[in-house]
Amino acid sequence: MTAQGAGRTPDGPGAARNLNPERERAILDAVLELLAEVGYDRMSIDQVARLARASKATIYRRWAGKAEMVAAAMHGLAVEHQPMPDTGTLRGDLAAGLSMFCRIYERKHAIVLGLLPAIRSDPALGRLLHRHMLKSGADEVVELLDRARARGELDREPDLTALVEVTKALLWHRLLLTGEPLDDGFVARTVDEVLLPLLRAG
């Protein structure tokens, strides 16, 4: 799914209508580019409009303001990936899925750094982004866990929220605090030492 998929996600009270998919993708791509270059506070609707070659009226017909537009762009970036493969085992599926999300998070690194000061000063923006980002990947994880239960690898309903939050916390900790790579070793250790024990503990 591309950034245009984010446009189909409700963006708040100001979301009035969907745009042409190509026009919406151009706007959200401009948002991501500016976030990485200048950060949230220095990014303006005027800059987005110029970079995307769109009118401000077009932008405001779709989103209530900058925060809603940024949330839509971040959501689109989070869900922009191929379907997770069915490897035939729970461990294989977790490793493949985590590897895929590592690549997505690497792409978001510079953008998130540009957002951090604004999130600290604007709790409402942080809550809006959290609502969008918590949803990303959830459907794929549900499908992965359903396959594992069908194969008899899980005998109880796992805590999906805990699984998603723990995984994302580990990814961001590594990207933002330690600076260590999201490599194959990280994926294997996370699956074997954190995710599988968490799932099997129910």
Automatic annotation (TrEMBL):
It comes from the Bacteria. SUPFAM superfamilies: Homeodomain-like, Tetracyclin repressor-like, C-terminal domain. One of its GO terms (molecular function) is transcription cis-regulatory region binding. Keywords: DNA-binding, Transcription, Transcription regulation. Pfam families: TetR_C_11, TetR_N. Residues 21-81 form the HTH tetR-type domain. Signal peptide: none annotated. Residues 44-63 bind DNA. Residues 1-20 are annotated as: Disordered. Transmembrane segments: none annotated. The keyword Repeat does not apply. PANTHER family: HTH-TYPE TRANSCRIPTIONAL REGULATOR RUTR, TETR-FAMILY TRANSCRIPTIONAL REGULATOR. This is AcrR family transcriptional regulator. It comes from Planomonospora venezuelensis.
